[in-house]
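Work Package 3 (structural annotation) set out to generate three-dimensional models for the target panel prioritized at the project kickoff. During this period the team completed the workflow that converts sequence records into C-alpha cells, so that structures can be stored uniformly alongside our sequence database. As a representative example, we reproduce one entry of 493 residues exactly as it appears in the project archive.
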Amino acid sequence: MRAGIVGLAPLGPPPNSGLQGRQVRLARRMALAALGDPTPDKRLPAGTQVATPRAAPQDFLGDEPPRSVLIGDLVRALATPGGRIALVGATGCGRSLLAEIAIKLALPGQRMLRVEVAADLHGEPLHQLLTGVRVEALVSRAAPVLRLTGQPTQAWLAQVLTALDDAPGPVVLLVATGHAQELGDWQALHVPAPEVAVRTQLWRRALHRAAIDPALATELGARFALNGGSIVRAVRQAVQASARPQRDHLWRAATANQSQLLGNSATSVHTTLTWQDVVLPDEVRARPAEVAMFVRGKQTVLHDWGFADKLPYGRGISVLLHGPSGTGKTMVAGLLAAELGMPLYRVDLSRVLSKWVGETERNLAKLFDEAQRQSAILLFDQADALFAKRTEVKSSNDRHANLEVNYLLQKMEEFDGVAILTTNFEGSIDEAFKRRLRFRIAFPFPEAADRARLWQAMLPARAKVASGIDFIDLGREFDVAGGHIKNAVVRAA
C-alpha cells in the first residue's frame, strides 16, 4: 500500500465494516501495466516522459578533468543500490543530460523517468505525485529524474526527500544552486557553469545545428555567461525572429536569456541617455569616470602587477551614490554600466528579503554568484533598506536582522564584481559597509544655475516648445531636484 501497488476499498456497511472486510485492489496503473498500456501514471504532471537513455559522454561538453570526474562519480553513485543523488546547478547547465549519460552507463536496460515537481505543490497533491513516481518507476523499470522547479523551502524539500526514501532503485534530483546544504544524506554533485572555451564550443554547436555561420561563436562565448540550455534557447529565439539571423538577433536573444538567469530577484536596467544629459558639478562628474577607469584597470593591477597576492579578499568594486531624491544617482549608475559595456541589474528587495530564517541569505547567495558569473553590475536602489545599521539584540527578530547584515557584509567581501548602492540617507548605512566601500560619491542638491540647465536638458529636440521661456527664472523660482523637474516637464508636455 505504501508503495502504491495496492489499495483498500472503502469501508462497507456492517458486518463488513472492519479492516478484514475491506477488499484489496490492485492499483490502476499496475493493472494497466500488466495489460501492456505504456501511458504514465495519471498522478504525474503533463510533460512526464519515460524514455530510453541514448546520450553518450561526449555529448556533455566541459573542461577536463572535471567533466570525466563528474560523470564517473555519478555513475558510481547510481550503481549503488538505493543510490540517492542530487545534481546541483543552474537551469540549463546540463544536469538532465548528465543523468541520462550516467543511467545508460550505470543501469543497462533501465529507462529514464523525467518528472517536474513544482514547489507550490503541497499536502495530498504532492503525496499523490510522489506515489505516482514510485509506481511508474517500478512498472516502467525506469530511474526517476526529478526536476524541482519554483522556490522550494527547506521544509518542503525535506518532505520530498522523505517521501522518496523508499522509492525502488536509485533516484536523481535536479536541484538549483543554493540548496546543497539541505539535502541531508543525499549525495550532492555540483555541475559547474561552463567557462569561456566551453561556452564557445556550445555556441558553435548550436549555430551549426541551426545552419547559421558559427563565426560569431567566439565573440558570443566570451561576452555572455550562458550555459548550454540558455545558448540553445537563444539560438532558437534568434531563428524565430529572423529566417536568416544576424549578429543583432543573436545578441538580443543572448541578452534576454542572460537576464533570466538572475530570476525574479533582479531586473535588467537599460538607458537611452548619454553623459550630455547629466547636470552635475564638475568635481562630481569626474568621480564616475574614475570608477570606470578602476574597473578597466582591475585585471592589469590585480593579476599582471601581482596585487591579487596582497588582496586575498575585498577585490570587488563597490560604489555608494548618496544624496537627495531626484539628483541623478540611478541615472549615473545606468550610464556607468553602459560606458563599461556591462549589464546592469536592479535588485528587487521585495524578492530578496524574506521573513523565513535563512531564505534572505539563500537569495543573496544566488544573486551574487550569478552576477559574478555574468560579469554583471548589481544596483541596490534605496540600499539603506538592506544595508541598515545593526541594532542592539533585544529579541529574536533583532538577532536575525543582524545575521542578515553580517552575511551581506561577507558576500560583499567575497564578491569580485561591481556593486552600486544608492541611498537618500547615507547615515542609515551600517559603518562596516562604509569602510568596505571603494567609492563614495555625494550628489548635491542642484543650485539655481544647474536647475536652469536641467529644465533645458529635459526638453527633447523634437518637442514643440514656445519661444521666450526664461529657463534661468524657472531655475531660480523652483527649488526642486532633477527628478521633479523631469516630472514637471512631462506633465507640461
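Residues 448-492 form one domain.
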